[in-house]
Amino acid sequence: MTTNYDMLGRDELNDLEAILSISNSDVDEVIHTVRANSDVLFTWDYERSRPALVKLYEKAKTSQWNAETDLDWSIEVDQVAEVRKGQNADKSAFGEMDLKGTVFSTWGEDDWVNLGVEMQNWSLSQFMHGEQGALICTAQIVETVPWIDAKYYAATQVMDEARHVEVFAKYLDTKLSGHYPVNAHLKMLLDDIIADERWDMTYLGMQIMVEGLALAAFGFMQQMSSEPLLKKLLRYVMSDEARHVAFGVLSLQDFYQELNSKEIRERQEFAYEAAVRMRDRFLQQEVWERMGVDPKEALTLTLADPNRNVFSGILFSKIVPNCKKLGLLDAGDGWLRTKFTELGVIEYEDWVDTGAEYDSLDAVAQDRTA
Ligand SMILES: [Fe+2]
Ligand SMILES: [Fe+2]
């Protein structure tokens, strides 16, 4: 873990300068070690006592897909042409903003296209690293969760996540034009989720927060993209992800009933902390470095773009209703409701929660019926 992170308070850390001061210094590292602190639990109670998880497990068994044969990898992808298509309506990363006097005032069309290419390389790279985080967290849940139905289900998710790492890695290698190492802030968030000794925090951090955000981000990219291979890849990944988020909701719902108010508050704070970190610290700083632009100058501009708030709001469209369904929004004195109101994302509270929608997102089953 980076030392200056531990020394800073959250407000200071969310300061742009502090965010940028933390970068991935281990870009050549191949193996990254995290110490897990949780107990590994056997259970001798094999009774199938959680019907919602039994149903989800059956669904996971029949909706498995094969990344090699269910996707058409012979499709040729012209990344530059795709980026140009996407930029037709909007030549810059800054919407309508006035760029006079900034480093971008001299940029021509090719620079903007290069930027679009690098942003796509960065995003897909972080998806890939995040998927590996999910692979590791789910393997950990198999070990740490006390219920047999959850161990069975989590085992299917381990397979799903392996497939997701596989497809993003293959798409990056064969269709795009470069990889990025894991973003330092993403790596720290994953490390913290893995290191927490309370088994349900792996669920809350990964299944509810990270996967909730990923599900929304994949949906956004899926709608924006016109490239058929990426579109189908994302549709299939999303159909798995919806089950994963549902797994979190269905598991934690029961468990949270048994917790006292102090324990619930810790979960609320954990959820809020993860939300702020994902919203304020995943800033594509490495893209600007690669483009030869001072990240601070570029990010000061992007953060001032009003469209950014709309987009970062959409990323919470799954997280907020799921937190509500778990009772986290209003527990205690409604602490998390107040915090999500301050973040400007409370409007999503009544959007459909993923515990209810995973069936309708099962693209794999839909394609097989068709
Ligand atoms: Fe995944
Ligand atoms: Fe997942």
UniProtKB/TrEMBL annotation:
One GO MF term attached to the UniProt entry: oxidoreductase activity
Annotated organism of origin? freshwater metagenome
Tell me the protein's name: Unannotated protein
| One Pfam family named in its UniProt record | AurF
